[in-house]
Design goal:
heterodimer, A: about 350 residues, Rossmann fold, five-stranded parallel β-sheet, elongated, B: about 270 residues, Spore Coat Polysaccharide Biosynthesis Protein SpsA, Chain A, ten-stranded mixed β-sheet, about 20% strand
Chain lengths: ~350, ~270
């Protein structure tokens, strides 16, 4: 037994312990939350960790179909039909949506972390009354302080760390002037469609403005599309971080959006046009269209927005935080192993 | 150094004896004075009408560089524009009308776009059409941005024009060299002389782009205006004449010269 524990300690010291990321199949559709997860995994891999991406079914579309970068260099493993080798020194990182997986792995002796990017998914697949703690998940990583507070109010004994995402370099200002195109991003497609249809009915004179649905594009396509737009529209009431508006801001595109249930900490009165009720959106968009046609949009919508976005571009900071937080978690496991030997 | 748009604005004037002339004229000149970037010159091509000459002689154009060009003979819009073009000393030319106004952002935008798109030969503004009571009636030139309307968003080409006529040249800024290449506005053409001109411009491979900004305000169907006269004046056009001029525009744009087209009701 002691030899096994010593083996675990040695594996940690030599970074031979595995860090498994459980990943959802995006089926080729871009998802900011999956990019965040892969960015974490890549950072750890580049730091010498033994990282493995776990996916559920054999039919799996690699993220490289929409995400450019060396993400395919991270080893992947399918759960279906294989026996997962998990040792006590290993770490399993599972997104909040996979509550049912947490339940399935509750008896595994490894370290467990919940990656919670969307608070509204926390309970989606948990049975009523179930908590992460019950399944041995005592650590959580999330994307904002506000979401951390929310999680701590709900999962009371879980320790929560915040690692803010970074907005990719691919989002940059266009050298050509924007066109009368409005990029729209909504959690549910119907929410976006309702806004578009109402807008055209109420403001037929603006039919020459084109709405572009920015969901489901590769990151590069998405970045190129948003650059052409003069306005980004954001309808995502359950957003917990707000990647889309920040990507717009970094691309030099002003944003109008509904304030989500959890107001992002980066949101100010001047870095975008933020409204309380989605029903106001067509009127607000029409106002912005007219103002843009007259070259009269407030300069702050560009300058303040660029300043806000610039706070989320520090890749080094992100990498450091990921490494530091995961290392701290693993080292605590190691200390626990050492304590067992001492006993 | 302050940037300047190398542009000549041509303003044809036929008569000062029209309703609300002073009010319209003041506004049109003011719209030039308040431009965010300066431009070369304003060429006013005027008839010899006494009241008009007197008005222009005494008008305070302030710092605008104004050249008054007398048009002798029987004036019409196209002939006056053509005389203006002959006197242009700038790289770019814009056609103006006394009952219209440039938006104060227009020349600034043109300057930006000429720097970013050096291959473009003509820039169209989105025109705000108003009626004689200044009530919004609609936009013109905006259709180049409508979904699936043109092959290249924002650009107007010959194929698109053949299907859809609602574009106008007032407020447009076009390269003088391109005007020299495609020939003058055709003074024998009625009703569709603007349409024919744009068809010819695009046929001779000009790159024509709409700048997505409200650059120009146009008063539609002002009493006494050219198009008002076609509809309500002494020489009201019949339906068959309207058809004639539309089909003529589509035939004439291949020719650089004005072939002195005349409508003959019996030949239609």
């Amino acid at each position: 037994m002691i030899e096994k524990i010593k083996g675990s300690i040695a594996n940690i010291e030599f970074k031979l312990n595995r860090i498994y990321f459980f990943v959802q199949d995006t089926r080729g559709n871009a998802k900011a939350s999956i990019k965040y997860l892969y960015d974490m995994a890549l950072t750890l891999k580049n730091d010498g960790h033994n990282v493995i991406m776990l996916y559920e079914k054999k039919e799996f579309t690699p993220v490289t179909s929409w995400l450019s970068g060396p993400y395919d260099e991270i080893p992947h493993q399918c759960l279906e039909g294989t026996n997962l080798a998990i040792s006590p020194e290993d770490t399993l990182i599972i997104p909040e949506i996979f509550g049912f997986i947490m339940e399935q792995v509750k008896n595994l002796p490894c370290g467990k972390i919940v990656l919670c990017q969307a608070y509204d998914h926390m309970f989606e697949t948990l049975t009523p009354g179930a908590t992460w703690q019950q399944f041995g998940f005592m650590k959580c990583i999330t994307t904002s302080e506000l979401q951390k507070e929310h999680i701590q109010r709900t999962m009371k004994n879980v320790s929560v760390d915040v690692i803010e995402p970074v907005i990719a370099d691919v989002f940059e200002k266009q050298q050509f002037p924007p066109k009368p195109i409005i990029g729209i991003f909504s959690r549910e497609q119907r929410e976006g469609l309702n806004v578009i249809k109402e807008f055209y009915v109420k403001y037929p004179q603006y039919r020459f403005f084109t709405f572009r649905d920015l969901r489901g594009m590769s990151q590069e396509e998405f970045a190129n599309s948003i650059k052409e737009c003069f306005l980004g529209v954001w309808v995502d009431p359950t957003s917990s971080f707000g990647t889309f508006p920040l990507e717009c801001m970094k691309s030099g595109v002003p944003v109008v959006g509904k304030i989500p249930n959890l107001t992002p900490s980066w949101m100010t009165e001047t870095n975008g046009v933020w409204i309380d009720n989605v029903i106001q959106l067509p009127d607000v968009i029409a106002d912005i269209c007219q103002t843009w046609l007259e070259d009269n949009l407030k300069p702050e919508l560009y300058t303040e927005a660029a300043e806000t976005a610039s706070k989320f571009t520090d890749v080094e900071k992100f990498n450091t935080e990921v490494i530091e937080k995961i290392n701290t978690f693993i080292n605590k496991r190691k200390e626990a192993f050492e304590a067992q030997i001492a006993e | 150094m302050e940037k300047k748009l190398n542009l000549s604005v041509i303003l044809p004037l036929k008569s000062a004896v029209v309703r609300d002339f002073d009010e319209y004229f003041d506004k049109c000149i003011k719209s030039l004075k308040v431009q965010k970037v300066p431009f070369n010159e304003l060429l006013i091509v005027h008839t010899v009408e006494e009241q008009l000459v007197e008005k222009l002689k005494n008008y305070d154009f302030e710092s605008l560089n104004v050249k008054l060009i007398r048009f002798e003979g029987e004036a019409n819009y196209q002939s006056q524009i053509n005389l203006g073009i002959e006197n242009v000393s700038s790289e770019w030319v814009s056609f103006f009308e006394f009952d219209d106004e440039y938006a104060n952002i227009w020349f600034d935008n043109v300057l930006k776009y000429t720097e970013i798109y050096p291959d473009v030969d003509a820039f169209l503004p989105i025109v705000v059409d108003v009626d004689s009571k200044d009530v919004f009636a609609g936009f013109t030139n905006e259709a180049t941005f409508a979904a699936n309307f043109t092959q290249e968003m924002g650009y107007l080409n010959n194929d698109t024009l053949l299907d859809y006529q609602n574009f106008q040249t007032a407020g447009m800024v076009v390269k003088k060299s391109k005007l020299d290449e495609i020939g003058p506005m055709k003074s024998s053409m009625k009703l569709t002389f603007v349409y024919e001109f744009l068809l010819r411009l695009t046929y001779f491979t000009a790159r024509v782009m709409t700048i997505p900004k409200l650059g120009y305000k146009h008063t539609s169907m002002r009493e006494g205006s050219i198009f008002w006269n076609y509809k309500n004046g002494e020489n009201v056009m019949t339906e068959s004449e309207v058809k004639f001029w539309i089909s003529t525009a589509k035939k004439e744009y291949f020719f650089v010269d004005d072939r002195n087209i005349k409508y003959d009701a019996q030949s239609v």
